[in-house]
Amino acid sequence: MNHMSKQLVYTRKWYPNLEIKEEHKNLPVRQVTCFIITRDEKLLLVSKDGNSWSVTAGHYEKEKDPTYIDTAVREVYEESGLDISKFRDKIKWLGYYVIEDVEEQSGKIVDTYLQIRMFLHLDMNSEEIFLKPIEGDLVKQARFFNFVDSMNLIKWLSESGEWKAIKNIYN
C-alpha cells in the first residue's frame, strides 16, 4: 500500500507560549492564523463556498514573509481585502499547535509541524470595514460574525486553546 492511500489522522497539542519553544524550533510552520475581532465584538471569518467558514489563515512563505506577523498581514489582506499592516505592532501572539499526522492503522507519525495563532483587536466597528477577498484567492467571501454565530459556524472554536487565550484578553 502506498503512502497516499493510507488513512491519516492528526493529533494537536496547544502551547500558549509567546514564542516557539526551543524543542519545536526545528519544526516547519505550515500555517499562520490571525483572529481579527472588532470593537463591536465581531470575528472576521472567510469562506470559499459560503457554507464552510474559517478564520483567516495561510502558509508561511519564507521568500515573501520575513516574520510570521508578515504572513498574518498578507493572508488577512488576500482573504478579506482588509489591510492590517498599519496595526502590525498590535498583533498579539496567542501560541501555537504542534500537529502530528499519524497513520490511523499503524499509529506511525508521518509528519510533525506547527500552526501559529495570532490575534488583532481592531478599534473599529465591523460595519465601518469594507471586506472584499482579493481577485484570484480561493476565498470568495469574508464577513464579520458575532461570537455565537462564529461558534456555530466553526464547531471546534469554542473549546480551542486560542479562543481561551482570546477570552482571557477580553476578561
Structure description:
- With 171 residues, this protein is α+β, with helices and mostly antiparallel strands.
- Helix content is 18%, strand content 35%.
- The chain is built from three helices and eight strands; from the N terminus they run βββββαβββαα.
- The chain has helices spanning 68-80, 147-153, 161-170; strands spanning 8-15, 29-38, 42-47, 53-54, 57-58, 92-103, 109-122, 141-146.
- The strands form two sheets. It has a five-stranded mixed sheet. It has a three-stranded antiparallel sheet with strand order 4-3-8.
- β6 and β7 form a beta hairpin.
- 29% of the residues are buried.
- The model has no long low-confidence stretch (mean pLDDT 93).
Layout: helices, strands, pairs:
Elements: E1 8-15, E2 29-38, E3 42-47, E4 53-54, E5 57-58, H1 68-80, E6 92-103, E7 109-122, E8 141-146, H2 147-153, H3 161-170
Parallel strand pairs: 2-7
Antiparallel strand pairs: 1-6, 2-5, 3-4, 3-8, 6-7
Low-confidence stretches: none
Structural class: alpha+beta
How much strand?
A: 35-45%
Number of strands: 8
Number of helices: 3
Summarize the structure.
The chain has 171 residues and is of the alpha+beta class. 18% of the residues lie in helices and 35% in strands. The strands form 2 sheets. Strands 1-6-7-2-5 form a 5-stranded mixed β-sheet.
Keywords for this entry:
alpha+beta, 35% strand, 5-stranded mixed beta sheet, 171 residues
